[in-house]
Amino acid sequence: MPRESGLYCFRCxxxxxxxxTGGVNHVLHFLVAFFTCGLWLIVWMIIAQRxxxxxxxxxxxxxxxxxxxxxxxxxxxHGAAAESGHTxx
Length: 89
What we know:
alpha+beta; 18% strand
């Protein structure tokens, strides 16, 4: 099941819902591992590890979340108001 998180999207310029791409069908992999007497376990672990590191994608515009870029864009657009304690109207 894909994970969801509220992250800042630099293209939408707001916090949006991001879903993690990919996913592993663990039931299918268990059955394959069972019928191959455990030989499939190595492949299953590699697939699960790669899926855990999958990217988060904005559900509104489809942009892949990049933490460094999102924080730098946010600071450029909102940094002055945030640092002074004032918010823009």
